[in-house]
Amino acid sequence: MPLGSVWTQGKDSALGIACIVALVATLGSLYLSEIANYPPCTLCWLQRIAMYSLVVILGIGALREDRAIGWYALPLAGIGAALAFYHVLVQRVPGLDQATSCSAEAPCNAMWVREFGFVSIPVMALAAFLLIAGLVLIAPTDPARDGAGDS
Fold first, then answer.
1. 89-121: pLDDT as tens digits
2. CB-CB contact of 61 with 140 (8 Å)
3. pTM, to two decimals
4. Which of 9, 56, 78, 119 is most buried (most C-beta within 10 Å)?
C-alpha cells in the first residue's frame, strides 16, 4: 500500500480517532473522580465541560462523516487546551493558585497523579486536547479536494 494511500486513510479516520481520544479522556476523568475518589477542582470541571462536549460533537461528526464539524470541535479543543495549560501553571508556579477560585476540598494545585515525575492530570488533559486539535486539523474538509474520493 503506497504511503499516500495510508495518509489519505489516516486523514479519513481522524475524526473517529479524535472522538475515541475524547471518550477515553472522559472515561478517565470519571474513573478518577468516581472510583479513585479524587475530587475535581474548578479548573478540572471547566476542562471536563470542554472534553465531554467534544465526545458528543466529534461522535456525531464521525458518524455523519460531517467534514465541517471542525468549526465546532476546534474552538472547544483550543479552550480546553488553554484551561489545561493554565492548570499546569497553577500546579507548577508557586503563588499562581491564589488567583484561581478553588476550594480547600478540591485545590487546583494538588497533584493527585504524578507519572514520570511530571505528568499530572492537567498535563494528560493538555495532551488529549492538543491531540484532538491536531486530528481535527488534519481531517479533510472537502473529500473531492483532498483526494478522498479517488480510487
1. 988 887 766 666 666 677 676 666 766 666 888
2. no
3. 0.82
4. 78
Domains and CATH numbers, the chain: 7-137 (1.20.1550)
Among residues 76, 55, 67, which one has the least CA distance to residue 139?
Answer: 67
How many whole angstroms separate alpha carbon 125 and alpha carbon 114?
13
Cell numbers that stand for 62 in this block: 464521525
129 CB burial (10 A radius; 0-12, 13-18, 19+): buried
How far, in Å, are 32, 99, 109, 130 from residue 91 at the CA level?
A: 18, 12, 4, 19
Alpha helices in the chain (DSSP H): 3-12, 14-30, 42-64, 70-92, 121-138, 143-146
Side chain identity, residue 132: I
Residue 119 DSSP SS3 = strand
DSSP, collapsed to helix, strand or coil, labels residue 37 as: coil
Residue among 13, 75, 17 nearest 49 (CA): 75
Strand partners, 73: none
* CB of 55 closer than 8 Å to CB of 22: yes
**Residue found under cell 486539535:** 133
